[in-house]
Input
Amino acid sequence: MTQRLVAGLLAALFMACPSGSFAQEKKYPEVLDAKPRFKTLPNHTELAPTAPAATLTQWNGSFTDLTGKKITYTMVGTDPSTGGVSTTVPVYIIPIKMVYGKANGNHTFDPVKTTVSNGLTVVNNVIASPIFNPGVNFTQGGTNLGTTQYIDAFQRGNFWKSVHKKANSGYHVLLGTPTVLKEQSITVSATLGQVVNNPFGSGIVGTYDINAFDGKLQTYMKKFSQLNPGVLPLFITYNIYLTEGGGCCIGGYHSANGPQPGGQTYSYSTYVDSSGAFSQDVSALSHEIGEWLDDPFVDNGVNCQDNGILEVGDPLEGNANYGAYPYSLGGFTYNLQSLVFIGYFGAPKSTSVHSWYAFQNDMSHVCPGQ
Output
């Protein structure tokens, strides 16, 4: 082999390894049969608080569905048909750091220390988003639902038949400015999770078993004296998908410890920073907070073949961009998932703005079974 040929081969190798090292970049496992989805854990009735000092602000309503059956439900806030009452629910964010060792990826996903494109940490970008920041005007089909938080705009649209009346125009269900509690850390064993290539986008994500994760959340809720049934504990991870029975990928869930009215509701969402990926930025959070709002105790039964309870995010999660739409605020484009109105579950269509079935008018029919 000539010196010129040897030099050429070495130069080619150096170009392939700009650092000057021939070491290969670490390869992470691929996720087979990944399915984007959300989860609702059954109410942990056995964990109901005893004699709670506070309860979640809530109201009860009903409608007769298209099969002639009476549906009763409990939602957060006050009855939109009885006056323009504004409710603000206190929120406590508990960030979760996920730590993977040498046996399962050797990486840490930290929502408190990781910054995103606008320079904010993951947690602070959640707080700056339209989930908490009332800085976006939501005008749907030419009707101004208000300059407000996203979930409030959704609920106003959900019950627009009542809310548009002058006497009820002040109706809101708002989330208070979150208080961030001390970050908690989970060291993930190789039997419960690993670092993998993101099956829906670029970069890497961590996985973790949902039941093990929920067990940790139960422990954390006992640690903080600030938490009670009158507030919403909100758990946030960064670049994490939960698994169930080994199957990936769950972007969030909500549940409750104990039945209404005194049960402790809570919610969890991941924040994924890969553009276009499942659970991108606050899309999973918008899904879960919308479902918490309209089914806080996971017991609002409906007569639908695709959904046994009144979960307003699930019917749209399979749409383009996983049902999310872009909204710019403060120099960042957030993705907010559309949510279905109660007309989808068989309530009178006229209840909602324009008699739509969903916030973005991206649902054309009632649920299967209606």
Q: What stands out?
A: Residues 36 and 249 are 5 Å apart (CA to CA). Residues 1-25 have pLDDT under 50 and may be disordered. The chain has one domain: 28-355.
